Amino acid sequence: MKWANRLLLFGVMLWVQSMEVSFSPNKSSLITGLNLGLAKVGAEEMTPGERANRDFQDQLNKKDLLEVLRQGGYVIYIRHGQTEKDYADQVTAEMGNCATQRTLSEVGWQQAKAIGEAFKKYAIPYDQVFSSQYCRAWQTADLAFGRYKKNADLNFPKAEDYSPEQIAQMKALLMPFLTQIPSPGTNNIVVGHDDPFEAATGIYPDPQGMAYVVKPLGGDRFTLVANVRAEEWLELGQ
Fold first, then answer.
1. Which end of the chain has fewer CB within 10 Å, C or N?
2. Which residues contact 112 (CB under 8 A, 6 or more apart)?
3. pTM for this prediction
């Protein structure tokens, strides 16, 4: 079902809820049916990557996750913080010119700062911090960790609708970051974007600010241990 139909269904539901009529049992049944219809529409419109993100199950609870992160050996892939608007800018964006790109919102700035505060509070060690060349990514890295190294391999291809070859390219470019075993007793940080991560893992990381904790297993193998929303980092020790 198209978005227009979904909005129409939602509008009908609001209209029914606002009616002051005597046949309340029928009204209740109708509202229930419309709510179920909306839920079904939402599920049908999710992509496989979005469903994988929704259904992902952490291998560790947050407290145990904090303990293993303190020991090191993980890659933390962080999708950049929330932006003012959410739209595809990879075709028109010019690297080095933030005016041509989506920019972090105030919420995004606060998300990045909260992530950094959590790493300091809980003494989570990290060594290398990589970022794409997009302003929203390196600004997230800078606000959270105070340092970063830009790498074009974390950028998007210059397209809105990716070809199979471009998807394969995104995966090939990201895999070295996800499979690189960090130095003993520390972790690596990668601040990037949604589509490259989905290309490599099949999971669309949502919402903005979402992080996935990756355990490199040697060679080209890795496993996903947990996901952490931006606001959850400070709750790890609770």
1. C
2. 81, 104, 139, 140, 141, 142, 143, 144, 209, 230
3. 0.83
